[in-house]
Amino acid sequence: xxxxxxxxxxxxxxxxxxxxxxxxxxxxxxxxxxxxxxxxxxxxxxxxxxxxxxxxxxxxxxxxxxxxxxxxxxxxxxxxxxxxxxxxxxxxxxxxxxxxxxxxxxxxxxxxxxxxxxxxxxxxxxxxxxxxxxxxxxxxxxxxxxxxxxxxxxxxxxxxxxxxxxxxxxxxxxxxxxxxxxxxxxxxxxxxxxxxxxxxxxxxxxxxxxxxxxxxxxxxxxxxxxxxxxxxxxxxxxxxxxxxxxxxxxxxxxxxxxxxxxxxxxxxxxxxxxxxxxxxxxxxxxxxxxxxxxxxxxxxxxxxxxxxxxxxxxxxxxxxxxxxxxxxxxxxxxxxxxxxxxxxxxxxxxxxxxxxxxxxxxxxxxxxxxxxxxxxxxxxxxxxxxxxxxxxxxxxxxxxxxxxxxxxxxxxxxxxxxxxxxxxxxxxxxx
Length: 431
What we know:
Blueprint: E1 2-10, E2 13-19, E3 23-27, H1 34-46, H2 53-58, E4 80-93, E5 96-109, E6 115-126, H3 140-143, E7 146-150, E8 153-157, E9 161-162, H4 189-206, E10 208-211, E11 222-223, H5 235-240, H6 246-258, E12 265-274, E13 280-288, E14 296-299, H7 305-319, E15 325-328, H8 340-354, E16 357-362, H9 365-369, E17 379-384, E18 391-395, H10 402-407, H11 411-416, H12 419-430
Parallel strand pairs: 3-16, 3-17, 10-15, 15-16
Antiparallel strand pairs: 1-2, 1-4, 4-5, 5-6, 6-9, 7-8, 11-13, 12-13, 13-14, 17-18
């Protein structure tokens, strides 16, 4: 799982750390930097399958470039940025579970030319030798072997485990993380853990999924698909292609949550193949208004924007692989304020059940007012330093006078009034 990301000179951030919890909620004003965090996750998610550094940043025929374009990925006047990801993993060895944490780091230069400056994985800790004594010679965390591929072979020295982006054997614009065959299999236990940390890092980063449902793109027929698109455009194809009884189970879960949205009685939600070839699909629901009314069949073209967005988010939660991080910007967009509690309940329940972490952003006071005390440790406030313009991150519960602010009104109310940002600015002036 992805445990944290560090952003250094990335867009509006000079140096900030975001810890990833089962449900992480980002709040902050417009232009505070919330979208820049999502862009960092977007970039990381592209690395394992990117053909080159340029395609990861600037996009290609299948993928759009990072928001803002190449000019704005580095905090001005800097020319390099660094992104770090802390990954946790485990594997079985001799009927025991070995757990480890590793740090993936990538540093990129934009000017005078686009190139990789550094790319490495560092093993932070492991319980592989928990049955041995705790001397530095027997603990993986103190070994952290450094693998340097050179023309002369493999060199091992204390320090870190590095994919040498600057090595002459590899282009300086191609990620080594994307090549799971680039490292041999080692006999030494510590080096085997390093190899597994490489594989785990690539798999975890690939499971970052950023969904931005666009209802207009979801109203038409879509081809049968195995993987949901980021805009939700092929939701019908994904649901229709599910094998039975998984399809029936997921559609029942969709109904359980979706039926709490409209005022009418929603009786069924499903997708099915259409046409002679049955290679495309359409999304349907059946609703009933009044005891004496006949059920009304509605396809995606007649569904509301809020319903379609809600369905796309639900489908992502129910169909993405376990261990994924699902990222949703403006999670409550198009949702009636009275359903904010339902949304939070859905995110927490499904995330826990399917072992999926969820990161969302919101501006909605209604949703913030639904954040019970047990949610507060997982809320991060994004704001801009008034003197430097740098984006900053602080856990909500670390704001010194938060109890005093909450005593004056709900979280939604104090956010509407800009009191969080004002408090942070005053605290900085006092320091």
